[in-house]
Amino acid sequence: AKAEGRNNYRFFLPSMHERVKERKTIEEDLRNALEYDQLELYYQPKIDCRTERVVGAEALVRWHHPDRGLILPGEFISVAEECGLINRLGAWVMNKACQQTQIWRETTLPGLRIAVNLSPAQFQDAELVRSVTKIMDQTRLPDGTLELEITESILMNNPEKAVSTLNELKALGVRIAIDDFGTGYSSLNYLKRFPVSSIKIDRSFVNDIHVDMDDKAIVDAVIGLGHSLNLEVVAEGVEEVEQHEYLRDKGCDFIQGFLFAKPLPAATFESWVLERHG
Ligand code: C2E
Ligand code: CA
Ligand code: CA
Ligand code: CA
């Protein structure tokens, strides 16, 4: 037991140290990323479950690191949140996504909707409503075109404040989606109280939907609940034909997943949609 303890100790220290060091490095590099234009948005199609037509896209950020190549948001969003860079990063994402969508709507992809992820710190930022107002003024996206995806935890921290922020966003024509639905701790009660327009069933429930009875039951219940509250229901992480068929038969409205497409760079997304709809 003693040897084991010593081993743990020996391995624990350097790895903690490494992690802290790595975070510091990412943080410094991330400042440069914003400065030197190393971020890029990828777009994953959102598909009508029944007609299989593309109705919109979710913008997902990528980082082209000069030494490390392409980095996924799982590696840097939480660092951006901790070091206070998330508001700048989030503002960049929102601007870019809305400008791109405006261009697409005026040229090759009329009617396209866009979803943007919002982190909790952004939602709490006093500047959020003002900056969304500015973007909506500049891009003149019609009501219902921009959707912000938030997680359940955002609503629970300060429910009164959350309601008023959501109402201000709604007044700007922005729709709100609850992301990763079902994975949070909150009660279902908030769906009634908050001005939300759609829920996204988390990937973890969709994974085994065609084989696991519990996941089936959960997904059935979420679709029923969503529809009885007049919400659009989106399923994410659809990888198999059987999952698509199950969701379609249960009346799910929209789906996203590798079955159709991974998140794609803007130009690739555009040609993918055009080719698909020929
Ligand atoms: P999310 O919002 O739940 O986004 C869905 C994630 O699942 C994306 O990962 C997407 O590439 C992946 N995905 C989509 N379809 C499938 C599928 O069929 N199978 C599997 N296995 N995965 C699928 P990504 O792009 O790495 O993003 C991870 C998370 O990072 C996002 O989860 C979101 O929470 C966060 N994120 C991404 N972009 C932004 C951003 O601009 N701002 C903020 N605040 N967060 C972002
Ligand atoms: Ca999302
Ligand atoms: Ca998710
Ligand atoms: Ca997520």
UniProtKB/TrEMBL annotation:
Residues 23-277 form the EAL domain. The chain holds residues 495 to 772 of 782 of the full protein. This is Diguanylate cyclase. Keywords: Membrane, Transmembrane, Transmembrane helix. It comes from the Bacteria. The keyword Secreted does not apply. It comes from Thalassospira permensis NBRC 106175.
